[in-house]
From TrEMBL:
<dbReference type="Pfam" id="PF00378">
    <property type="entry name" value="ECH_1"/>
</dbReference>
<protein>
    <submittedName>
        <fullName>ECHD2 protein</fullName>
    </submittedName>
</protein>
<dbReference type="GO" id="GO:0005739">
    <property type="term" value="C:mitochondrion"/>
</dbReference>
<dbReference type="GO" id="GO:0006635">
    <property type="term" value="P:fatty acid beta-oxidation"/>
</dbReference>
<keyword id="KW-0456">Lyase</keyword>
<dbReference type="GO" id="GO:0004300">
    <property type="term" value="F:enoyl-CoA hydratase activity"/>
</dbReference>
<comment type="similarity">
    <text>Belongs to the enoyl-CoA hydratase/isomerase family.</text>
</comment>
<dbReference type="InterPro" id="IPR018376">
    <property type="entry name" value="Enoyl-CoA_hyd/isom_CS"/>
</dbReference>
<dbReference type="InterPro" id="IPR001753">
    <property type="entry name" value="Enoyl-CoA_hydra/iso"/>
</dbReference>
<dbReference type="InterPro" id="IPR014748">
    <property type="entry name" value="Enoyl-CoA_hydra_C"/>
</dbReference>
<dbReference type="InterPro" id="IPR029045">
    <property type="entry name" value="ClpP/crotonase-like_dom_sf"/>
</dbReference>
Length: 222
């Protein structure tokens, strides 16, 4: 996906009704020794980092349970849409664990330190509406009879992104992600570098021409 220029938005959904991702198989985990557990979690953390580093926007469609590593998967995405009936939580402390695939870092960056600590310390599960109120998800929708309401809303959101200039969107994502990790002066410099890369693109020229000619732009990602 990283190198396929035809890919403009990636939506993560589950094929299992009622479950987005239920997290690690604890029965399998119980059969591992300490070294195997450490290796397993490191690989999982690396996977989440690869998802977070995808250059195009990513959307998690949470139509059911997103627990433990399942919520960490959703947190690795740029945007999250949940059904109101969905259940989310970093529940690791209820099993003698702590989040190990990015949850302790991505959750506070999403909802703030205080809320993240409360959710992780208690292992609490919350529904889609509660997740919306604390900024964990971008949108919450009532579940439908097919059980894919969040996915349908995620598709609608993806279709809002699709008409926009692909390279500009990628540079916007890069500037935000890199800028969030540094002080604001360094972030401004990152924005400037990303903007400089966008200036010579054909899409920027097309955007300006379309504005002058009062027509919709036809972006090609170049």
């Amino acid at each position: 996906l990283r190198f396929d220029e035809k890919v403009r938005v990636v939506v993560f959904k589950s094929e299992v009704k009622g479950v987005f991702c239920a997290g690690a198989d604890l029965k399998e985990r119980a059969e591992m020794d300490d070294a195997e557990v450490g290796h397993f979690v490191k690989r999982l953390r690396n996977l989440m980092d690869e998802i977070a580093a995808l250059p195009v926007p990513t959307i998690a469609a949470i139509d059911g349970y997103a627990l433990g590593g399942g919520l960490e998967l959703a947190l690795a995405c740029d945007l999250r849409v949940a059904a109101s009936s969905a259940k989310m939580g970093l529940i690791e402390t209820t099993r003698g664990l702590l989040p190990g695939a990015g949850g302790t870092q991505r959750l506070p960056r999403c909802v703030g330190i205080g809320l993240a600590k409360e959710l992780i310390f208690t292992g609490r599960q919350i529904d889609g509406q509660q997740a919306l109120s604390m900024g964990l998800v971008n949108h919450t929708v009532p579940q439908n009879s097919e059980g894919d309401a969040a996915y349908q809303r995620a598709l609608t959101l993806a279709k809002e992104i699709l008409p926009q200039a692909p390279f500009a969107v990628k540079m916007g994502k890069l500037a935000i992600n890199r800028g969030m990790e540094v002080d604001i002066a360094s972030g401004m410099a990152i924005e400037g570098m990303c903007y400089a890369q966008n200036i010579p693109t054909r899409d920027r020229q097309e955007g300006m021409a379309a504005f002058r000619e009062k027509r919709p732009p036809q972006f090609i990602g170049k």
